Amino acid sequence: MAAPKKGRNASAQSKPWRSLALILIAIVGLTAGMFASGHTTPRLGIDLAGGTSITLRAEPEAGQESAINKTNMETAVSIMERRVNGLGVSEAEVQTQGDRNIIVNIPKGTNSKQAREQVGTTAKLYFRPVIAREAGGAAPTPEASSSPSAGSDKKTENKKDEKKDEGTTPSPSATSQGRAVTDGLKADASPSPTPKASESKDSGDKGDKGDKADPQNSKLQAEYAALDCTKPDQRTKAGKGAKPTEATVACGQDSQGQWQKYLLGPAEVDGTDVDEAQAVYDTQAGTGWKVTLGFTDKGSKKFASITGKLAQQQSPQNEFAIVLDGNVVSNPYVTQSLSSNAEISGNFTQESAKNLANVLSYGALPLTFKEDSVTTVTAALGGEQLQAGLIAGAIGLALVVAYLLIYYRGLSFIAVASLLVSAALTYLIMSLLGPTIGFALNLPAVCGAIVAIGITADSFIVYFERVRDEIREGRSLRPAVERAWPRARRTILVSDFVSFLAAAVLFAVTVGKVQGFAFTLGLTTVLDVVVVFLFTKPLLTLMARRKFFASGHKWSGLDPKALGAKPPLRRTRRPAVPVETKEA
C-alpha cells in the first residue's frame, strides 16, 4: 500500500512561525494605515458621541399616493444629504427606513435647530439667467471698462470646443455640460466676453433696479468679486437669504470637478413649473442619453419668454442656471426659443442623466416631509452610554479570562493572547472603516463586539477539548495537537458560518442602529476564523515543543493524569493461535 503524502502537512507543522509572521505584518500594516489616515479612534455614532436624530415621514399630496416610491425617496435623501453637508457636517447620516420614513443623524457640534429647518423643508429649484461666470477663486472687483482681448476670445472658444467631448455629470458645469434644444443641437460659436464685460452689459440690458452706481448692485458685484467657491464656508453662505425676485451669487462644479462662481439674475422659472423630467436614450439620432423636460402651461410661457431672450445673448449670458438650494447643478446654453418641451443633451451617461432628471423632478415632487420624532443626545449622555458599554465588555472579558485560567490553566495563555490579537484587529479595522466607508460605532455595535468575545472564546475551547480528547486516548501532546486540528477546524468553520449567516441576514433585513450590531458581529466572526487559523493553531504548535506543555505539567492544563488518560498506545504482535487438525 502506498505511503500517505506527509510532505505538505509536515512543512506546515514545522514552520508555524510563517503564519504568526503573516498576522504580525497585517497588524503592523493596519496600524500604519490608521496613523496615516489621522483617525486613531473609531468613529462614534449619535448615541455615543452625542448629536441629533431626526425621523421624517413622507406625506404625498391628495390623490398622489403613488408618489411615495423608491426613486422619489432616494432623490429626497440625496437632497437632504446635500443640505446637511452644506451646514459643514461631514459625518451626517441620511438613510431611508421602511417605505416612507427618512432618518437623519447629525453628530454633535451642529446647530440642531438649523439642521431641522434644512432637512424638513421642500427643495427650492429655480431657473435663473447667468449674468457672469468664472473660476471659483476670489478676484478683483469687476470693472465695466474692461473688454475682452483677442487672446481671451480664442481661449474661450478653445475651451468650449474641448469641453464638447467631455463626459457629462449632473453636477454643475460650464456651458458644455448640457444644451437645451428642441430640434437638434446648435453650437454657439460666438466669442465669449470676459465675466467683467458680461456683468457690465447685463446691468444695462437686463434693466436691473438702478444703474451700476446703485448701492444694491454695487454690493452684489463686490460680493461676486470676493466670493471664493473653493472654500466650503463661502459656498454655504453664497446667495443665502436671496429672494427669487432678486439677483444673487452661487457656486457650482464643472464636469472636471472644478468650482465656478456665478452671478445670476432673478428667477424666471420656478421648480414647480416643471411637470416632469426623464432620462431617455436617443435611439433615433444616436446621440446617447439626454434629459427631457416638460413644463406646465404656466411654466411653458415663462420658459418660452426667457429662452427667447437668452438666445439673443452671447456666452455666458445665453445660459440659464438650474439652481437647487442655492447650488448650480447645471447651466445649459440656449440657441433658440423653447416652449413646453425641451431637452438637455450632451455626453451624458445613464447614471448622470438619471441623476439630473431626479434633481429636476424634485422641484415638482408631490411630497412633503413631517417630523415624526427628534431625539437629541448630549455628549455627556453619550459618554455615559459608552462608558457603560466598555464596562460591560470589560466584565464579560474578565469572566471569560477567569474561566480559562481556572479550567485550562497554562492553555489560557494561548487563549488570552488570541483574544488580544482579535481585539487589536477589530479596533484597527473599525478605526479605518470610519473614514473609508463612514462606519460609526454605536451602542448596538458595542453589544455585537461583546457577543463576539464569547464566539471567539468558543473556538478556542473547541480546539482545546479536541486536543484533550487525543491525550485521553493515550497520545503525546505533539501528535495530539495535529490530529485534533482537522476535526476542530470543521467544527469551528461550521459554527462561524452559522454566526456570519445570521449577521448577514440581520444586516440585510434591518435598518438603522441594528445594522451596526449585525455588521460588528459579522466582522468579528470573520476575524475569529483568521485568528484561529493564523495565530491560535500555530502558537499551540510552538508551545507543544516546550517542556512545560510537552511533559504534561500539572499547571499546563494538559496533565495526562488529571485528564484520565489511557496508557500509551503500543503496537503488539497478536499471539499465535494453535490450529487443531481435523480428521477427514
Report on the structure:
The protein is 49% helix and 17% strand. It is an alpha+beta fold. The strands form 3 sheets. Strands 4, 6, 7, 8, 11 and 12 form a 6-stranded antiparallel beta sheet that branches. Strand 6 (248-253) and strand 7 (259-264) form a beta hairpin. Helix 2 (17-37) packs antiparallel against helix 16 (513-543), helix 12 packs parallel to helix 14 and helix 14 runs parallel beside helix 16 (513-543). It starts with 6 loop residues before the first helix and ends in a 21-residue tail after the last helix. The model is unreliable at 1-12 and 140-213 (pLDDT under 50).
- As an assembly, this protein is single chain
Largest sheet: 6 strands, antiparallel
Radius of gyration: 35 Å
Contiguous low-pLDDT stretches (5 residues minimum) are 1-12, 140-213
Mean of all residue-level pLDDT scores: 74
Shape: elongated
Strand content: 15-25%
- The N- to C-terminal Cα distance equals 39 Å
Instruction: Give me the number of helical elements.
Output: 18
- Count of DSSP E strands? 15
Class by SSE composition: alpha+beta
Indicate the percent of residues in helices: 40-55%
Subcellular location: Cell membrane
Domain Protein export membrane protein SecD/SecF C-terminal: 369-545
Transmembrane segments: 386-406, 413-433, 439-464, 492-511, 517-536
Subunit structure: Forms a complex with SecF. Part of the essential Sec protein translocation apparatus which comprises SecA, SecYEG and auxiliary proteins SecDF. Other proteins may also be involved.
